[in-house]
Amino acid sequence: MTTRHVTVGVEGTLIAVRALDRAAEEAVLRGALLDIVYAVPDLDEAGPVVASAAARVHERHPGLPVTASAFEGGPVQALVQHGRDAELTVVGTRGPGGVAGLLFGSVSLRLAARTRGPLFVVRGNHRSARRGEVLFGMESDADADAATYAFAEAARRGVRLSVLDAAAARRPHHRP
Fold first, then answer.
1. pLDDT band at residue 106 using 50, 70 and 90 as cut-offs
2. What predicted TM-score, i.e. pTM, was given to this entire model?
3. Which residues pair with 163 in a beta bridge?
4. Domains observed in the chain
C-alpha cells in the first residue's frame, strides 16, 4: 500500500525554501506525508541541505510526518521517481513569470513533460500574499479527470485556472 505523500524538490536556494514551505502546507492540508528530495551529483554533499530542509519543516509543522533523502542524479529523474504516486509534486522556479517564464527550459518544464500527477510550481524568490494560479496542460479529451482536478484545485484556492493546449505547445510553429 502506498503512503499518501507530497513530494518536493530542494537544492539549498531561497526559491527551493519557498517551494518547501508551500509543499509542507499542502501536505498538512491533505493529511499526507512530506517527501523531501535533493538530487545531487555526489551524495557526500547532500547532508546539510537535507537536514536543514527537514529541520525547517519539523519546526514549522511539528506533527507533519517527513521523509528526506538525497538522490544521486538529476532533479527531474529524482522527482519523477519519488513523485510517481504522490498526490502532488512541488518545485520552485526562477522563471520571470507567466507561462513563458514557467516553460522556458526549466526543471519545471521537463518535469511537467514527464510527471504523471499534479505538479505545483512555486515561482520567484520572495514571499507573496497572492496565491497565483492553477495551470492545466491539456493534451486531449482523455484529460477529463485531470481537468476536473485542476478546476477543483483552482476553486479550493480561490485562484484563476489557466488552460494550456499542451499538444499545440509541442508542435513546431511554421510560418509561410
1. confident
2. 0.76
3. 136
4. 5-126 (3.40.50.620), 129-176 (no CATH)
